[in-house]
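Problem: given the chain below (308 residues), write out its structure.
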Amino acid sequence: MHLQTGPTSPAGKSHSSDNATTHGGTSQKLIVAGERQEDFTALFSGLLAEYSPETPSARSLVEDFAHAQWFLWRRIRAQNSAEHALYEAQPDPALWTNASFHTLTNMERYRTTAEHGFQRALRNLEHLQYAQLSQSNRELRQQNFETRLSLDRERIALQKERHELSVARETRQVEAAAQKAAEKEQADYDEACGNFDVPTVTQNIHVQKSPHGTVTEFDPSNKVIRADLANTEYRFPIESVCRAYLFEHGIPEEYWWDEECEIHAGCARHTLTQTLTRDTWLQMADQEKQNAGGHAVSGYEFFNDEDE
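Solution.
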């Protein structure tokens, strides 16, 4: 029977404990930041009381098992801390960098190595138990050993489950907040659109006949709408303009843009609606700026497929 005990001399153990001190997750030093000597002493004392080693070699095996368990707990804490930090920095794993996944992979590898060392130490102790136990009490001592192993596994599983529950809870909170923000964004956009598909401003154009000729009033004026279209501070920039015409006493000759308009020349309070893209409206406004009569232009020559 061959037992793996590791370094047994004081010099060898000192050299082993000083290896790989780059950070707590991989360090082989007995005590690193966040750990206490008294906690390890309590662990080791408890194992000595449980296994009652009768020889120096048996005591060395118990000490190896204490180290293996101590380092495994350290690896578990380091892995949980690293994963928690990644979720804190970026809740969506789809947006993690390669470096983030590389960090998790390293933590998993360190933990796996520690678990192998833990299992190896357990097997050595198992051999020790079989060597020390008499036939009369072997079954009872084996049961105690399996109970301790089961408790250790349950404790490790519980730590992992608690961490996963914490991450899942935080993920749900982030997702709920994101969903609420998206719904608020959509509601604000719908409010900006009103009855239109895109953010739209309505320009009422009142046309009526007077003793001095046809009078056209723009509300709001082209100047005001032009300023609105150029405003970069709007959360949802205006994308179209709806012109709502009201011909108070029928459509005057200045607005006989087509046969349909001419047909309604005598229809009182006739209405007409045009929904224009911002580019079409700007071209029409430029043309109207040069219109000495102050009337709206038909804009038919400016229309495109997006205009209605």
